[in-house]
Amino acid sequence: MTIRQNEFENVNMREDNKLEKALLVGVFNDQSDSGFEASLAELSELARAAGAIVIGQVIQRHPVSDPAFLVGKGKIAEIAEQCITHEADLVIFNDELSGSQIRNIEKAVSCKVIDRTFLILDIFARRARSHEGKLQVELAQQQYRLSRLTGLGQSLSRLGGGIGTRGPGESQLESSRRHINRRISVLRKGLQAIVKQREQSRKRRLDNELLIFAVVGYTNAGKSTLINRLCDSDLHAADQPFATLDPSVRRLLLPDKTDVLLVDTVGLIRHLPHQLIDAFRSTLEEITRADAILEVIDCSQEDLTSRLTVVDELINELGAASLPRFYVFNKIDLLTKSQLREKQDSLTSEGQRNGSIFSRQPLHWVSAETGEGLDELEQNIMMFAQNQMLSVKLSIPYREMSTLHLIHRYGRVDSINYQSDYIEVSAHIRYSHYQLLRPFVMLAEKCEEM
Ligand SMILES: Nc1nc2c(ncn2[C@@H]2O[C@H](COP(=O)(O)OP(=O)(O)OP(=O)(O)O)[C@@H](O)[C@H]2O)c(=O)[nH]1
Ligand SMILES: [Mg+2]
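Above: the input record for the complex with magnesium ion. Below: its predicted structure, written as tokens.
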């Protein structure tokens, strides 16, 4: 199946290739109260990542009842004035806008208007490299577009049915909708084929049966840098939102010479568009197939707990909450000793107050940049991996020699003694392989190191 290039690409690039000047608009209301400042600062980061220069911001401090514009008439006038003064190319709203709101505001301020969701989708489109990533992003964009079409108003729509609602007389709206729906179904089919392929390679990976750790966290937390440092790899890492879109797997050699796999995942952000979560679901579900999660948190950030909540909510939504979790607080090199102590104390006391995991779980404080704390993290990963293993003594008849190959493949052979009529093997195997080797087991016990 051939799939056309994404028609959304570079959608907010100026024709002369210059950076666009963007004015930000935030609405301060009760629900977004606590994270408002952080969320607006993040919007500015996102705008820059999309190739725009932020020339100012307008904040609506009081909720407005007029849903046609989201902000009050006075604010609309202020936005229009600022657009003229700063020669803005576009206005970016921090809140989601409906199709009709976008059109109303565009008309009133005479400038291109987009919302946070559109902006994030645009950044994803710029970053997508793999075939799958490109299809996923375009699927999310087309769904966004479909949901914004309805704002065009009833007068343009003939969806009510009846004579004249099909064929040459159909409205612009309806034909756009049909065009988008057709495209969506092509994209879905393309993605299904890729998921099938992935199932095959997962089966192969399961054959190798290495423990899998999904590295999950807020965007820019340092997930890829951490993997690079631990695995001596060269995944793309950069100081920008959504540097990673496609999941990659790297092998970590532990001090006891066993290997585990670390899976890098797409970074998360507050108000991650639901269209993206849907489109990336099959990729995100890789997390649920891991044996454990390494949750990476940038501890130099002020809004640390709200970022943690965003990540935890997605892990819950995916149904991966019961997986064992390592909390890895990264970037400690950016804090002074006393700032670090303050953060550690506040997390522990907060944990004790609301009974959260932090009061019970050992937390890892590391720097993927300098390597500080990584030895201890590796030790803990190793202990966890050993925990998943059984120490066994096997007696294998010579006619069952092929079993030796199985043990090499599924576990770690510690010693082999060739006796006169059987082979005596001491090994570490995964619990899940116990049944397979059971006929030969003389002794099995949980590992000492646990
Ligand atoms: N000072 C410092 N910077 C770090 C550390 N770890 C990562 N960084 C920097 O943080 C930025 C983001 O790192 P990435 O590894 O790309 O972050 P990520 O979590 O993979 O981000 P996404 O893929 O966008 O979700 C890069 O500029 C890194 O160099 C750290 O321990 N200390
Ligand atoms: Mg990354």
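Notes for the reader.
Residues 1-13, 152-169 have pLDDT under 50 and may be disordered.
The two ends are 51 Å apart (CA to CA).
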